[in-house]
Amino acid sequence: MADIKQDLFGLEYSADFTLQGIQEAEVNLNLIPAPPPPATVTGTVTDGVNPIADATVKLFDSTGTPF
């Protein structure tokens, strides 16, 4: 599998500005930290030996809040 690199910053729209004729403009842009990428959970739910068909898996964070 290829080594996929995550963008560390996200882009947002800058404030509108207008140029007329031959003008220069200084536009300051901000880069905000990008949100973490979504995760994927894979695997097989078993009873210890045999797979359990149509099992439902629920994920919770460390405080017990469901994702």
Q: Roughly what percent helix?
A: under 10%
Shape estimate: rod-shaped
Q: Would you report the number of β strands?
A: 2
Order the strands across the largest sheet as they lie in space.
1-2
Q: What's the structural blueprint in terms of helices and strands?
A:
Layout: E1 9-10, E2 32-33
How would you portray this structure in words?
The chain has 67 residues and is mostly loops. 0% of the residues lie in helices and 6% in strands. The protein is built from no helices and 2 strands. It has strands spanning 9-10, 32-33. The chain has a two-stranded antiparallel sheet. 0% of the residues are buried.
Please name the defining characteristics of this protein.
67 residues; little secondary structure; two-stranded antiparallel sheet
